[in-house]
Amino acid sequence: MTPRDIVIQTFRQQFQGEPELITRAPGRVNLIGEHTDYNDGFVFPMAINRALWIALRPREDRLVRLFSARYEEMLTFDLDDFENTNAGWGEYAKGIAWALKENNYKLSGWEGTLAGDVPGGAGLSSSAAFEMAVARAFGAVSGFAWQPKEMAKLGQYAENRWVGMNCGIMDQMISAVGEKDHALMIDCRSLEIRAVPLPSGTPVVILDSSIRHGLVDSAYNERRRQCEEVAKHFQVSMLRDVTLEQLLQEKGNLDDISFRRAQHVITENQRVLDSVAALQSGNTAAFGKLMNASHDSMRTDFEISCPEMDILVEIAQGLPACYGARMTGGGFGGSAVALVEQAHLEPFIRQVQQAYTDRTGLQAEVYVTQAEKGASLE
Ligand code: GLA
Question: Cβ distance 94 to 84 under 8 Å?
């Protein structure tokens, strides 16, 4: 059954009637540009063909009731009276309601069901997808227009302030504004977007390492703090404003960790720009090399990879069908992304999975994905 079928069927069971609206918001894979978004830098993600779905109908009262098919659990809260109870998945929905109210949106109650096929913890932004699906649901029942960039900002605000994860804007943005068959270069300072068609004959392949580390949020928040401290050292608001020359000149006055964190961000921003230029001139091989360089930088300078991920990426990079591969997303496990020649896709997948299991004893899930449109009413 598709997630769409699941939300409809579950709705009938839970609420004895038909849903009136269906929202969908996709997960994402970032092709290059990691931990650059909260430094006002550049990212290059695409929305994937996996999404979270909500089937819903308005309620007369002020309640929101949302049943998760995955957790088999009903979330209920009153729009005029709710608190953060750190109660897991439901906080993302409450966080969106809170952020909308904080920004003076008038909200109506609704009831719905949630299901999806974005694997959790895999670095594919299932939480941003959930947030954008909820934002679309509120928009549809409360009658305000869908403004994707505004909703992405609200999603980030909810995650920063309600959930306590100091994420940047990338995940919510791409889930809200994604375009079919395109990756989007996003300038995270101006929120300007450039849509870049993906090269044909080279599918984007997601390799899930199956590694799920605890304490990811605190390690993530720590990286962000480190970046902000280096920016302060240079007396600029964000690392986006420091050049590589300036960093190198200042090396003697920075501790080793600060230097390497900044070196990752500054060179990664340049790699995003170079990647877009490479793809626009049809140079897929050059793009692949930049992906590989990005992984090295995350491993050695930013230190957000892990041994199993390094093995997975090394295996993928070593196969002739692979243009390039790197870890994607926040890090500390999750997934890698690889660009692979279509003609050799099947053996590539088989060989990666076999070699990964041989070397780590773990199983890698593989998702071949296409770029899809952002959050929608279906
Ligand atoms: C997570 C965050 C994003 C971004 C990436 C790393 O996915 O939510 O804002 O910082 O990590 O690039």
Answer: yes
